[in-house]
Amino acid sequence: MTTPDSQQSLEDEIADLERRLQDARSRLNAEDVPVAPSTLTSEAALHALLLLADSALPLGSFAFSSGLESYLAHHKPSPPFASQLPSFNVFLRLSLSTLASTALPYVLAGYRSPADIETLDNDFDASTPCTVARRASIAQGRALLTVWERSYQTQYSPTATDNASRDDSFPQESGAAEALTSFSTALRKSDLINAHLAPLWGLVTRVLDVPLRAAAYLFLFSHARTVVSAAVRASVMGPYQAQAVLASTELQDRIRGLVEEGWEREVEDAGQSVPVMDLWVGRHEKLYSRIFNS
Amino acid sequence: MSFTSPFAASTAKAGYGTIELAVLPPDTPVLRNVSYQYPLKLVAPDPLPPPERKPNSNAPRLVHTVFLLTYGGGIVAGDAINLSVSLEDRTRLVLLTQGSTKIFKTPDPILISRQHMEVKLAAGAALVYLPDPVQPFAQTAFSQSQIYHVDGEQSSLCACDWVTSGRSARGENWDIHEYKSRNEVWTSDQAGKKRLLLRDNLILDKHGRTGMQLSERMDGYSVFGTLILRGPVFASLAQYFMDEFEALPRIGGRDWGDSAQLELSPKEQRRVQRQAREKTDGLDWSAANVRGFVLVKFASREVEGSRNFLRDMITDEGSVAASFGERALLCLK
């Protein structure tokens, strides 16, 4: 009585159920050993993460829409009063995808190899072929460096943290802080150094002892938050809708997936996955009226 | 008794090619070496003198042209092409294709066709690389890289890299498995330490967690391209792109009628015509001046839109045709 089609769908269903059973079993076994990858190792790391996640962190991110403003100008709703929410949702997905393919490898590399920070900064600058995006990245990177110098350095420099309570899982911890300090000194002397946000984000989170996965997740989340907040100010959505977008499991899964996908990607293979994004961001300068810097 | 061949052993490998442009003293540029192996084919017509050459200028007496061809007019799954080009001081080369580079269907997405080009530009050398677009058919996997090594500020480069959505007449619309194109410009300091000046890397594949088809990600565009301009030979062209970008009408601005001029200069007339054409062709572009380069990004609904744009801009400005000849623009006709 069964047609080949329903036979196929039954087989698919069985395979799916088996996979879920296996999945649930493995989770049951894993619960004995708490080694979930994004677990924060200590309260100190949680504290640092909260500092960086605070919207009061003076990076000036609110001034940038990362191309949203230009995108909306290129996609006028067909009756002018129609909601721009559907096209915003598309933009947020594309924007996160772009950030993960272009900047995330530099966050990871900045964290993993602090000594290479100058090369990473140069290569990121060479890979950002757009005045507007470059300006936004440098402004926030320099702001992050200033926050480090004026606010965090005294707490997190090697001498201040020389106590036993710290988790000693990163033996070159002092190396990272030194790399950061010498980078900020070099920034004043050389005009070849730009201080882009992505590699510095990696390095600063390393010095602050935030686990890498959390640092990468927060990097993408902060971007989503900035874009959503820009959407509120561009009258695309209300503040409650904005919180709903940020709280959604869809966004969580997307960010987690992007971190997973980019985990092994080398900086040499960073690149633009949404080519039209370069146009939207680059043409921001051509907007008749602007409320954002990018 | 063994026989020793009087000729050097062939070291050529499949798909490998070499172009060496050198100067025969006192001042004659010559193609010292043009070699290639199947499936790559290089054709070098006779060099031509540049249409305009000021006496006592640094410009060479002859401009060489080389066509990059592949047997069968395209790249079959698994093909690998590897071209190395070197230009000595005071030489000029035009690299062209004959028709779009077609990428044929692959039986397996992990079987990637590759094309790699490594170009060494001495100080004072200039390269024009204005090929036809790459046209990856449905179900193809292709990866190409163009790596340029320049020597200081005096190496000049004008390179275009553009890709289309496939055979639009057959309804193909970015139905590819994977397409990657990488353009890099490197330099070395006195100590020999390499420094990256520019990296333009396009990655179209299934990654990115967008949950969208590649065609949706492209926002209705069928062509994407990048034009890289650098060095003294292309300085005026680069400036022209920046000026024209500055002169584009503002997005969302309104024409109140008070800015219209009665008498337009010929230059302004051409600008108005070009902008009208950009609008009908659905062409959008941007230009940025970063790190000593001018980078132009463009996209259009159809191939012809981008071709019109590039041809109009480069022809209106005029310096490429004047110092390299009309032939340099062959792929934009």
From TrEMBL, chain A:
GO terms for molecular function: nickel cation binding. Pfam families: UreF. Transmembrane segments: none annotated. InterPro entries: UreF (IPR002639), UreF_sf (IPR038277). Keywords: Chaperone, Nickel insertion. Belongs to the UreF family. This is Urease accessory protein UreF. It comes from Didymosphaeria variabile. The lineage of its organism: Eukaryota, Fungi, Dikarya, Ascomycota, Pezizomycotina.
TrEMBL record, chain B:
Keywords: Chaperone. It holds the Pfam family UreD. GO terms for molecular function: nickel cation binding. InterPro entries: UreD. The keyword Chaperone applies. Belongs to the UreD family. This is UreD-domain-containing protein. It comes from Didymosphaeria variabile.
